[in-house]
Amino acid sequence: MSLPYDFFLSLFLESLILDASLLSNGLDEFEMGYVANEEMEVRREIIRTIISGNTTSLQPNSGQPVMIRGHNICIGWHDERGSDFRAWEWHGHVMTHDEEKGYLLEYIFGDYFERIPERHR
């Protein structure tokens, strides 16, 4: 079975938008803060993996965390019959250090809606 042209076009457009919005946002770590920057980098890596189609390394829906940029992140997805999108969701923690409080875990989460090829409804 070959995939439709629209599927490849949507992958190209998603990666183009991803690169434009996440790679060249013009903000550095000091303007965003460490946790926000790490959350953005984790999001970028997860979405790139999803777009590539090689999602086994993410261990989705396993309940097991995967290491992304040195952070433990749990990833899952779900879709509904009749929908053209798969909803990916993730959550985890970023370790930070505060002079007064020591090491702290900051909770992060994110989501991404992957367009999937038309299928039988």
Automatic annotation (TrEMBL):
Superkingdom in the source lineage: Eukaryota
Keywords: Signal
Signal sequence coordinates: 1-22
Protein name: FK506-binding protein 5-like protein
Provenance organism: Cinnamomum micranthum f. kanehirae
